[in-house]
Write a structure and sequence with these properties.
Helix content: 40-55%
Structural class: mainly alpha
Number of helices: 9
Shape: globular
Strand content: under 5%
Distance between the termini: 26 Å
Strand order of the largest sheet: 1-3-2
Number of domains: 2
Number of strands: 3
């Protein structure tokens, strides 16, 4: 894991424009999704999110209304109280965690609401989901947030597409 994190720290921001261009150019095929999913599995065998948690430290998670209701129930508070206390609503009406680092991130990088965490957190970094090549901008931006995504993209560059 250390090599992946060191490489990410040294190169992610400098490679951002290159990664944006590369990710825009990859084929939109099911075979691309399969390859990226396989790379995801390989990389996450080496990466321990609990040693990083950069996503929780730098990026406010989106929270759907069903997420808010579920988390509020878990915290034994009314959904309106949860929304008012912990979330912000953007101009488009989307809700997100109000603080960065995340309010629910513990010092040991564990999550206080892990069992009921928002769907966006459950799915992050989205590298094992279908439609990878349709999310080129998001994936490129995630290379500067997540060492695993950076490593997946670096390996994808070397793959025969």
């Amino acid at each position: 894991m250390e090599k992946i994190v060191e490489d990410w720290k040294a190169n992610a921001k400098g490679n951002l424009n290159e990664n944006k261009a590369f990710l825009k150019s990859i084929p939109k095929h099911k075979s691309t999704d399969k390859l990226v999913s396989d790379l995801h599995d390989q990389v996450f065998k080496k990466v321990d999110c609990l040693k990083c948690a950069n996503c929780c430290k730098t990026t406010p998670a989106l929270v759907t209304r069903p997420d808010a209701k579920r988390i509020a129930k878990h915290l034994s508070i009314p959904p309106k109280t949860f929304i008012r206390k912990y979330l912000l609503e953007d101009i488009d009406g989307e809700l997100m965690i109000a603080r960065v680092p995340c309010t629910f991130l513990n010092e040991d990088n564990t999550c206080q609401i892990y069992e009921v965490r928002p769907q966006a957190c459950r799915e992050y970094p989205h590298t094992n989901q279908t439609g990878f090549s349709r999310r080129s901008k998001m994936n490129a931006n995630n290379t500067i947030v997540c060492p695993a995504v950076f490593e997946i993209v670096e390996r994808l560059k070397k793959a025969d597409l």
